[in-house]
Amino acid sequence: MLRLADHLLEQNGGLPLPKLLSVNIVRIVICLPSAITFSLLGRAATIQAVSDSYNGINLNGRRLFTRGGLAWVKLLQTSFLEFMIVVGLTGVLVASLATVPKILLACGIRSTGLGFWGVLGFLGIPFCVAFAHVMVVGNLAWVLNVLEGECYGFESLAKARSLMKGRKQTALGMTLLSNVGFRLVESLFEFRMNKGLSLWEGPMLVSMYSFVLILDTVMNVVFYYTCKPRDYVL
Question: For this UniProt entry, which segments traverse the membrane (predicted)?
């Protein structure tokens, strides 16, 4: 499906941004069902397990999945809010890329590529910074959703932002490390798909991706306890 989207856009002479958006939209449609069910439930159970281990509580599978199920709706609301913020940022960028070249054309500058790449270069860095900030705050907000029952949605995002004051560079470094791991596994998957994926390689790549996801969750839970004041009560 991803190759089909690329092929259609190449035939229509699409710009790089619409092509990139089409690929991301297809990925979202494919991954959405599992992302809002198994992924959220698994992450909630992992957060609770790491928290119990951190506090010296014996692990109990039934307790983990019960707490994970109770936190699922909260995680879903926070994830949806985070997604809408990202969509808003992307909409501002896309609207600027669509309108500025036309404005330049009306002013007599006929180079559409110049307007496109100029706006992308001017807004690209602020967009990347804002996107990274949303990811960092969102990761910590997910931990708050599970470990603090009354905190979810916009409240959890605001509380996560307040909690991580003075430690944003550490959070950005953790997010960068996790994203590099995710991208490496995805690149390896795409490479093996082009070369021909063996039967045993599929489960191995899924295991690698799951390991990076668990490592990211563990880092965020430990980071939560590092940011939490000593006199703070759950």
Answer: 20-41, 80-104, 116-147, 205-225
